[in-house]
Structures are given as structure tokens and as C-alpha cells.
Amino acid sequence: MIQHHRYEAILEMINEKSFVSIEKLAKHFNVTHQTIRRDLNELSEQRKIVRHHGGAGTVSSTTNTAYQARKIMDLPAKQKIAERLVKDIPNGASLFINIGTTTETIAQALLSHSDLQIVTNNLHVAAILGSKKDFSVIIAGGEVRHRDGGVIGEATESFIRNFRMDYGIIGISGIDTDGSLLDFDYREVRVAQAIIENSREVLLAADGTKFGRRAMVSLANISQANRFYTDLEPPETIKKILKDNKVALHLV
Fold it and tell me: Is the pLDDT of residue 62 over 60?
């Protein structure tokens, strides 16, 4: 079995059972214990599972990884995704940009553009893009979440609904096998939903570690995006949803 496919199968087993032993995984896939340990260590580094003595279990679906850790996690993949995504943004466009370290990386890549109009609920994005004299940057009002500079709440959602932008650039914490886009904070999700509803075109950006990652709040479905940017081949179920709903897939 190809390693990437084995990763998907391991995640499926762990998500189903909550905990699976190395012994059981090695027997199921007919590989050595050492191979399974390497697989589990890799999945653990991607924050998709939690390693335990003798096996692995599911990560928390209620608490996200700390912001500073997420900021450097899979940074090369995020940079490649950002470089590809901004090629589809013309100069003079209007954009929503939501909360997340991936969208912050995209903001950096947008600095080579000109005459952009940006509405964001991400203080870090506003700081990055506010340095350009020819950019107009509007920060949504609301409660500032101290851990990551995200602006959230009913006031934020209401503010977003005052605009109709060319593009909505969305990052996400997890993508379930049925295409559900998942996140951890209900208030953040409500704002992201408002961005999706008020964007002419939705651009979803997520590195491959988000496939199968759990979070407790459903934001939307991947079928609602117009374009999806990622660095790994999606699982077959996701590829079918993309194809059936004519969502353009951009692999970097």
C-alpha cells in the first residue's frame, strides 16, 4: 500500500476506534512495527493524531493547536499554496480574508499586487497588508481573540454582511471525509459563513494535514467553494465531491 493511502486508512481506523495499538495496525497493514511507528510519528507531527504508549488516539475536537505552533507548522506547504492562489487574484480586486495562519501567509504573497480592497477580521492580515499605500484595508469590528488576533462575534458578522466582495479567501482547521469544513470556535464560524455568503467567488486554502482532522463546529461544505488549493492529493471521497460540484482543484 502506498504510504499516503496507508496514512488515510490509519486515520480512519483511529477516528473510528478512538485508540488503536501499534500491534493491531501492524497486523492489519501487514507491515513491521517500526513502519507503523514511523507512520504514527509523522501523523503526530501533522497534529492529526496523539501518540500514546503502544499506539495512537484521536486529537481533541474542541481545542485548536496553539497559534505560534500553527504559524510554523507546514509553512513551506502554506507558502506554495499562497503563491498559487494569489495568481488567481487580479490587481484592483476586492477581498475578504478570514482568520488563520494560512490566510496570513496568503496576505504576505499578496504584497506584490496593487490596488486591492480588503476587508478582514484578522489583525495580523490587516497589519501585513496595511503596509501597502495602494491597498485599502478595513478591519471588521468585534471582540479581539487574544490568542491569535482574530476578530469575532455578532458585531463582526453583521459588519461583514455590509459588503459584497469579488473574492472570499478562507482557511479552515479540518476537512471531514464528507466534505464538511470544520473549525473550533462557533463565533469564528459564523463570520466565515458570512464571508462565504457575500463573496462572488470563494477560494479555499488548506494544506494536506487538514484532511481528516477533527473539529467540533461545521462551517460549510467544500462543495460551496469555487476553487480549492492544497498541497496533497485529496482523499477519493473529497475528489468526488469536488468533481460533482465543479470545484476547481489546484494542487501545488
Answer: no
pTM confidence score: 0.76
In CATH, the number for domain 3-58 is 1.10.10.10
**CATH assignment, 67-251:** 3.40.50.1360
Task: Give pLDDT tens digits for 160-213.
Answer: 999 999 999 999 999 998 999 999 889 999 999 999 999 999 999 999 888 888
Write the burial class of residue 22 (CB in 10 Å: 0-12 exposed, 13-18 middle, 19+ buried): buried
Using alpha carbons, select from 246, 210, 208, 239 the residue that is nearest to residue 225.
Answer: 246
Q: What's the pLDDT score for residue 114?
A: 98
Helix (H) or strand (E) holding 23: helix 22-29
Instruction: From 172, 173, 154, 163, select the one nearest 118 (Cα to Cα).
Output: 163
What is the Cα 41 distance to its own chain's centre?
Answer: 21
CATH 1.10.10.10 domain extents, the chain: 3-58
Residue with cell 482523499: 235
* b/e map 119-139, b = 16+ CB within 10 Å: bbbbbbbbebbbebeebebeb
Q: Which of 244, 125, 148, 105 is nearest to 195 (CA)?
A: 125
Per the DSSP assignment, residues forming a β-bridge with 57 are 19, 50
Q: What is the pLDDT of residues 120-162, one digit of tens each?
A: 999 999 999 999 999 999 999 999 998 889 999 999 999 999 9
Residues of the chain with CATH 3.40.50.1360: 67-251
